[in-house]
Amino acid sequence: MLAAITAAVGFLVAVLWFDLMFDVQVWPHRRADLLPEPVIESIASYYRRVTTDASPMNRLISLVMVALLALLIAQATRDVTPVWLSVVSLTLAALAIGLALGRVVPAAKRLGSHPDSQRATTALARSIFRDHVLFLALMVALLAVQLVGG
Known about the structure:
Elements: H1 2-23, H2 37-53, H3 59-77, H4 83-113, H5 118-149
Helix pairs in contact: 1-3, 1-5, 2-4, 2-5, 3-4, 4-5
């Protein structure tokens, strides 16, 4: 069970790493009012490819998220799993996946379609970056909890 959970978390962290390679372009401009247009275009092009153009392969990420939740629920129902491990793991996973599906994916799709003003796309790119950093922290914490408690 631990190996499958670790693999799912590892997959999600790897996908996140690719996202962050583009998101990190906002960092040098964190104090600027607006991101430069080439930065916005680079990030928007990436999210257009991964949220729209990559269909149906982009659904694999959602499938892995569902599989991770199912694995954690299965782990929680086993008598050998400490309650604290299940509670913490499910909480971390639910927060991360809820953030991804509730905020990041819709924002990435919108940014990828690039219909907004430079101010709006700047706000979207910055919020996606912040959310991805939080997602990474949640996934690393989940992995640590699993490795320590599992």
